[in-house]
Amino acid sequence: MKPFTVLDAIVAPLDRANVDTDAIIPKQFLKSIKRSGFGPNLFDEWRYLDVGQPGRDCANRPKNPDFVLNQARYQGAQVLLARDNFGCGSSREHAPWALEDYGFRVIIAPSFADIFFNNCFKNGVLPIVLPAAVVDELFQQCEGAEGYRLKVDLAAQTITRPDGQAIAFEVDPFRKECLLNGWDDIGLTLRHADKIRAFEDRRRAEHPYYFA
Amino acid sequence: MAPQTLYEKLWSSHVVHQEADGTALIYIDRHLVHEVTSPQAFEGLKLAGRKPWRISSIVATADHNTPTDHWEQGITDPVSRQQVETLDANIREVGSLVYFPFMDQRQGIIHVIGPENGTTLPGMTVVCGDSHTSTHGAFACLAHGIGTSEVEHVMATQCLLQKKSKTMLVRVDGELGRGVTAKDVVLAIIGQIGTAGGTGYAIEFGGSAIRSLSMEGRMTVCNMAIEAGARAGLVAVDDTTLDYLRDKPYAPKGAQWDAAAAYWRTLKSDEGAQFDKVVVLDAATIAPQVTWGTSPEMVTTIDGRVPDPAQVADPVKREGIERALKYMGLEANTPMSEIKVDQVFIGSCTNSRIEDLREAAAVAKGRSKAANVRRVLVVPGSGLVKRQAEAEGLDKVFIEAGFEWREPGCSMCLAMNADRLEPGERCASTSNRNFEGRQGAGGRTHLVSPAMAAAAAVSGHFADVRAL
Ligand code: SF4
């Protein structure tokens, strides 16, 4: 996993609540057996005017000029500003893969769906929960000033606005550590292999019917 | 000992290791695998040179991509075929407890075949790279959906990194009215608490109305816990649970059964156990439900109307309703019973079990598909359900009514195969998600119970099944 330390980047505002994983990456793209290459189809139904097909080159597809990511001022954005319950719906990890592949490393929202939130951390994407009023203000600032950037410092747990104001955010200490170091969960867990084996032996003795 | 909730019992019996911040390693008893969310996990495992920890925990099938007709032609879509063949190859190489490949007699939707084969048992932790894994909580299992990285993590370590959820009790008291089903109960719950109402919680469903449901009905309710934002739904063990499991192929037998059953009977919340939140519904007030929008919480009763955004003060809510109505092609204040449908879908891991098909068939019997309805798909959840339905003659009832009787699979629940809505088409669907484009780009989905879906199919518009 790519480590995450400090990011200073353009912000794109996606002003709708309950953005679900079907919208983030429509299901026809789930047929891939690869982990990469989902970026061009991120938000496919909103981003393009035609219907996207897997394996098709997106360069020449008609773009929806009204969709925020198609506007010139948000090109190169790596921070996504979102509304309540972002990432609801299915457990597909293709959603964070698509966001990451597109270039997003930080998503800020008042709330996230659980599974999506979890999946982000495993893919080097930092989801940040901020109070709705704070997110509202960021939306206003971002929409009001072209080239709006935020600096996100994971170690310090701060987001710094262009006007210099710093916003503190919470992050689970374990997740933070993994993200800062780019650690892979499996390697970490296997350090406890003996404990897992001991637990399993005990469980097998107590409840043999789960091991048939 | 202090009284414990069912969730706490399941949680504490699976903790292998706990970090100071509360992150725990949870042991996983059952790992369900399907073709869409597993290829990258198998690949990651191989690339890292790791072996699966316990092959006998794996139950696998192909369901999302498989066609529901013309099986003699195989899978014609090359991309779908590649995904299914990749699963075949991976399972052949790695191994599993059970594998039901495409066209196997017992193949079907992963959440249908797990329980019907007795590979889902009370007290287990069950995971799958699919959010509707919450279904299995109907058996007092700690069951939830995981992402592909976690699929790989479970394969490699037999554990999952988890934080303990908060607990919520949703109690449905009293008796359900005639024509009101488990689907209506869960839609009414989501309508009340919202699609984010359960975020961060494990929801236990209780109360006399839940107790009176069959296992099929309880699975329908737990299936949609995720649509209320909760990763896991739970129902305590009782006689209904044990009666359902007793003769299932992978359920324990003889003395093992007796030992298991004695333990399973303890899998309920203790008297006086404290929940972080309690929500109470009165079963008698629940009427058949129909969704009108693009989120399961956008729901009303069959005698209700499409909401009027002008009446909503909160600007974010108003805009959400306006957007949904525009997508759905609906006018404010239209009576739900006047909305015409183009297609009907009876199936999915929410409502494709034998009882669901019986309920739909009871409505279809002696009636026929309305002329304005282009197609009615009936897709059983598994090969076993299909043959059971055929033994009961339900297939004939459907076919005589002009419905199509298909092979098992996920089908038009998410339209990854050829079964889908055309842009602008409206569908009465027994599935679980009415998101934009879920059943095909531009398609419009209304979630209903199987009986209500059949009522819409024969009426041409949504209709109160109680009046038919
Ligand atoms: S039936 Fe639908 S919700 Fe259930 S597993 Fe299949 S695609 Fe997912």
TrEMBL record, chain A:
Could you tell me one molecular function GO term of this UniProt entry?
Answer: 3-isopropylmalate dehydratase activity
Where's the Aconitase A/isopropylmalate dehydratase small subunit swivel domain? 1-132
Gene Ontology CC: 3-isopropylmalate dehydratase complex
Is Lyase one of the keywords?
yes
Any GO BP: L-leucine biosynthetic process
Q: Which reaction does it catalyse?
A: (2R,3S)-3-isopropylmalate = (2S)-2-isopropylmalate
Keywords of the record, alphabetical order, are:
Amino-acid biosynthesis, Branched-chain amino acid biosynthesis, Leucine biosynthesis, Lyase
So which domain of life are we looking at?
Answer: Bacteria
Stored Pfam families: Aconitase_C
- Gene3D superfamilies in the cross-refs: Aconitase, domain 4
The pathway to which it is assigned is:
Amino-acid biosynthesis; L-leucine biosynthesis; L-leucine from 3-methyl-2-oxobutanoate: step 2/4
UniProt-listed Enzyme Commission number(s)? 4.2.1.33
Which InterPro entries does the record match to this protein? 3-IsopropMal_deHydase_ssu (IPR004431), Aconitase/3IPM_dehydase_swvl (IPR015928), AconitaseA/IPMdHydase_ssu_swvl (IPR000573), IPMI_Swivel (IPR033940), LeuD (IPR050075)
Q: Which NCBIfam families match?
A: leuD (TIGR00171), PRK01641.1 (NF002458)
Q: Which HAMAP family match?
A: LeuD_type1 (MF_01031)
What does the annotation say about its assembly with partners?
Heterodimer of LeuC and LeuD.
Q: What does this protein do?
A: Catalyzes the isomerization between 2-isopropylmalate and 3-isopropylmalate, via the formation of 2-isopropylmaleate.
The entry's family comment says: Belongs to the LeuD family. LeuD type 1 subfamily.
Q: What is this protein called?
A: 3-isopropylmalate dehydratase small subunit
- Where does this protein come from, organism-wise? Pseudothauera lacus
From TrEMBL, chain B:
- Name its pathway: Amino-acid biosynthesis; L-leucine biosynthesis; L-leucine from 3-methyl-2-oxobutanoate: step 2/4
> Is Cell division among the key words of this record?
no
- Which cofactors are named for this entry? [4Fe-4S] cluster
> Among its keywords, does the record have Iron-sulfur?
yes
What are the EC numbers? 4.2.1.33
Gene Ontology molecular function = 3-isopropylmalate dehydratase activity; 4 iron, 4 sulfur cluster binding; metal ion binding
The broad enzyme category this protein falls into is lyase
Single GO BP term: L-leucine biosynthetic process
Database matches in Gene3D superfamilies: Aconitase, domain 3
Every copy of the Aconitase/3-isopropylmalate dehydratase large subunit alpha/beta/alpha domain together lies at 8-460
Swiss-Prot/TrEMBL catalytic activity: (2R,3S)-3-isopropylmalate = (2S)-2-isopropylmalate
Note how many cofactor molecules are bound and how: Binds 1 [4Fe-4S] cluster per subunit.
| SUPFAM superfamilies documented for this protein | Aconitase iron-sulfur domain
Identify the keywords attached in UniProt to this record, alphabetized.
4Fe-4S, Amino-acid biosynthesis, Branched-chain amino acid biosynthesis, Iron, Iron-sulfur, Leucine biosynthesis, Lyase, Metal-binding
Which residues of the sequence carry a binding annotation for [4Fe-4S] cluster? C349, C410, C413
Q: Which InterPro entries match?
A: 3-IsopropMal_deHydase_lsu, Acnase/IPM_dHydase_lsu_aba_1/3, Acoase/IPM_deHydtase_lsu_aba, Aconitase_4Fe-4S_BS, Aconitase_4Fe-4S_dom, IPM_dehydratase_rel_enz, IPMI_cat
Q: What does this protein do?
A: Catalyzes the isomerization between 2-isopropylmalate and 3-isopropylmalate, via the formation of 2-isopropylmaleate.
Q: Which family does it belong to?
A: Belongs to the aconitase/IPM isomerase family. LeuC type 1 subfamily.
SUBUNIT field: Heterodimer of LeuC and LeuD.
Name of the protein this chain belongs to: 3-isopropylmalate dehydratase large subunit
Q: Species name for this entry?
A: Pseudothauera lacus
Source taxonomy lineage? Bacteria, Pseudomonadati, Pseudomonadota, Betaproteobacteria, Rhodocyclales
Tell me the gene name. leuC
